[in-house]
Amino acid sequence: MTMPGLFVGHGSPMNALEQNAWTRAWAGLGRTLPHPRAILAVSAHWFVPGTHVTAMEAPRTIHDFSGFAAELYSVRYRALGDPVLARRVRDLLAGGETPIEAGLDGSWGLDHGTWSVLVHMFPDADVPVVQLSLDETQPPTFFFELGRRLRALRDEGVLVLGSGNLVHNLNAYGWGRPIEPYPWAVRFERAACDAILDGDVAALIDYPSMGEDARLAVPTPEHFLPLSVVLGLRDPGEAVSFPVEGIDGGSISMRSVLVGGA
User: Does the 5-259 domain belong in CATH 3.40.830.10?
Assistant: First the structure.
């Protein structure tokens, strides 16, 4: 069975503890999608020079944030790692005319872009998880190509999970108060979704060309780039859907993008 590819808008780390429309939808995806033998997570929060893949037997839970409720720091997501999968990822990226060198990492672990979603999707932590970094030195085209190189994993029972946010502007976020989505956030999200449905990868890679809406919606690239990786997994003509929708705090898109699957 071919696994789907999934991009999730993860939003606030507090979603790890909360029961809301988004976390219930993540739990529903965990129940309805084919059960993976392993997960390769690509999180916005491992944005560093170079491409690295976690290769430890038991990745640590990283609390890569500050200023949140004390109980959030006690969360531990105790999924096993998968060193064999880590080496498989390294080998897949090394193939082709232009090899991508990926280093095996023994120090990172799982950051909140990964575990705040997986505590709802797979609460028993019974699926091994490997995490792949985003190379901050690379151009946008690199990340779509990264997804293309990883396409074979879908036929090997691996769920490739991109975690970020299609719209992510913390400076405009309505901290602690309800706020309607900003018009620019709605417009950019709509334009991006139209491009996804049309298979217009070039427009998504060159999202800054969408003008002022893009500048406000994606002021920094790290939360958008995991979407490019997941779209690289898509076969020509393959179905794509949006199993989770909504904008939090006016400026954070919680939309998920499912490539293939149910």
Answer: yes
